[in-house]
Design brief:
Blueprint lengths: L2 E3 L10 H7 L8 E3 L7 H8 L3 H12 L5 H12 L11 E3 L4 E5 L9 H5 L2 H11 L5 E7 L3 H10 L5 E8 L5 H8 L6 E7 L2 H13 L1 H9 L2 E5 L5 H20 L9 E6 L4 H12 L3 E8 L4 H8 L1 E3 L20 H24 L1 E3 L2 H10 E5 L2 H15 L5 H17 L5 E5 L7 H8 L7 H12 L20 E3 L3 H11 L1
Parallel strand pairs: 4-14, 5-6, 5-8, 6-7, 7-15, 9-10, 9-14, 10-13
Antiparallel strand pairs: 1-2, 3-4, 11-12
The protein binds pyridoxal-5'-phosphate.
Length: 495
């Protein structure tokens, strides 16, 4: 299996180890596999007999030719089958005859980014050996909250890798912030930005695309790599849980082999839902992909009109990991439906004017697989309340956005296909907003909200969030986004 850049009309190819090591292509495009491996129903039936980690190893094996199946099994075993996921890696919970929640937050940071970031550093570590890399990998991450902590946990104390995380100072919850500022490890650094997530992400992208920076870092013995969901090593493991969900539903008699399901995903950077689209292209019986957004509904508009326009107000919502106006992974979708030439054209237009319009043919191709909806803050709150009071099921705001959108889809279409909704964070990661949706109690802060929500519902607090306020703060730096490069170089020099 070889890879190429979404923007390269000459189709230069790269190996899987190179792609994982490099993160972003030289031309600013994203790496994509040159072709999509196909799974037959018999393969899916075979996967059904395996544990989660073996399912993931099998899926990864289809994309990562530089790795042996034994290496992948070992890494997946270490990532998913140990103490990191006490509640199982990706359990599925039935709510109604048509709605199923795929819980992806039982890992070490209580959010779904763990699904990829517990395995990705192990793949990168092997990629450095496989490509004879002598330099240290410097991972730069811009985070809207959950990625940062998950990356820090994934990469901490891994040999020949250092990691630096930037988060928007006022764009993450205080629990998310505490999770990051209390991080331990001898190869980690954390820094707040005065600005929003897009400022942080643009800052990181600029550093990545600056050749003089690369040279300066190389002289110091470093090269840049990315842990954001633009890295293929982040995306590939996410494909696995859609297959796994299907296998579990088949195993427990919810569906027959070959029966189609719908998938609804709370979407920000478009990584999670794009992984579902790949699963569909690989042969997983998925009918519709429902793209759920919050008030930052640029994707909803795009899927309705074919016009992507980021020139709009930015809203800070209670689902901050979806407060995004440029969904990077959408570029990969455009590549698969429209090809490199058009992708390049659209991306140039996006960077010049902040918008682009796809042609009729591309729009029609998207309509076949995708539907977009959004839930505003009021709908999100009402949905949290509804699922607790009617189903005794506690959900976080991101997951609530998805439930609301799945309901909108079902009401609008009357489609009775069984729908899997990815639940992307523990409700305790956003305890204050969840508590406010359920009661009039006014906690003093997020930490008090954790205990109050626990008392009110009796639902257990996940292990990564217990006693979070008793840990030592290791990082206090907050800077302007224009100073990001300076702080990266200072960090490297300090080591
Ligand atoms: C990152 C994140 C999302 C959005 O996922 P994308 O892959 O960026 O679309 C949704 N919910 C939570 C809790 C997240 O952390």
């Amino acid at each position: 299996m070889e890879f190429q850049s979404t923007r390269d009309v000459n189709k230069k190819t790269y190996s899987s180890a190179q792609v994982i090591k490099q993160g972003l292509a030289d031309d600013g495009g994203l790496f994509v596999p040159c072709n999509i491996p196909q799974l037959a129903m018999t393969d899916i039936e075979e996967l059904s007999m395996r544990k989660y980690y073996r399912r993931t190893a099998k899926i990864l094996n289809r994309f990562l030719n530089d790795y042996t199946i034994e290496e992948l099994k070992d890494d997946c075993h270490d990532a998913y089958d140990g103490e990191s996921f006490p509640g199982g890696a990706a359990p599925i919970v039935k709510l109604t005859d048509s709605l199923y929640s795929l819980e992806l937050w039982h890992g070490p940071t209580a959010a779904f980014k763990d699904m990829a970031l517990q395995i990705m550093p192990r793949l990168l570590s092997r990629a450095l050996d496989k490509t004879n890399e002598k330099k240290t990998a410097l991972i730069l991450v811009a985070t809207s909250g959950d990625t940062g902590k998950a990356a820090l946990e994934g990469y901490r104390d891994i040999d020949k890798i250092k990691i630096m995380v930037f988060y928007p100072e006022h764009g993450v919850s205080s629990v998310q912030k505490l999770q990051m500022t209390t991080q331990c490890g001898n190869n980690v650094n954390v820094c707040g930005i005065n600005g929003n997530f897009d400022d942080a992400q643009n800052g990181v992208k600029q550093i990545f695309s600056d050749k003089t920076v690369a040279k300066a870092l190389a002289d110091k013995g470093y090269f840049l790599s990315s842990a954001n969901s633009i890295n293929w090593g982040r995306l590939a493991p996410q494909i696995a849980y859609y297959f796994s969900a299907y296998c579990d539903m088949y195993n427990n008699g919810t569906i027959k082999l070959g029966e189609k399901i719908n998938v609804c995903v709370p979407t920000g950077n478009f990584g999670n839902i794009f992984a579902a689209y790949i699963a569909k292209m690989m042969g997983l019986p998925i009918k519709k992909l429902i793209c759920a957004s919050n008030s930052n509904n640029v994707l909803t508009d795009f899927l309705h009109t074919g016009i992507y326009n980021r020139n709009r107000d930015f809203h800070m919502t209670m689902s901050p990991s979806m407060d995004i106006l440029i969904s990077s992974n959408l570029e990969r979708l455009l590549y698969f439906v429209a090809g490199s030439e058009k992708t390049l054209e659209y991306m140039n237009s996006l960077s010049k004017s902040g918008k682009y319009k796809i042609d009729e043919e591309t729009k029609a191709a998207l309509d076949k697989s995708f539907k977009g909806y959004f839930a505003d803050e009021k709908m999100t709150t009402e949905t949290i309340h509804k699922y607790w009071t009617e189903y005794n099921y506690l959900i976080d705001p991101h997951t609530a956005v998805a439930f609301s959108c799945a309901e909108q889809y079902i009401t609008e279409t009357g489609d009775t296909t069984k729908t899997v909704i990815t639940s992307t964070a523990s409700p305790y990661k956003f305890a204050k907003d969840v508590l406010a949706a359920l009661s009039d109690e006014k906690p003093e802060n997020d930490i008090a909200a954790l205990d109050m929500l626990n008392k009110l519902t009796g639902v257990e607090i996940p292990y990564p969030l217990r006693n979070i306020d008793k840990r030592q703060i290791n990082f206090k730096n907050v800077i302007d986004s224009k100073d990001m490069l300076k702080s990266v170089l200072a960090y490297v020099d300090k080591q």
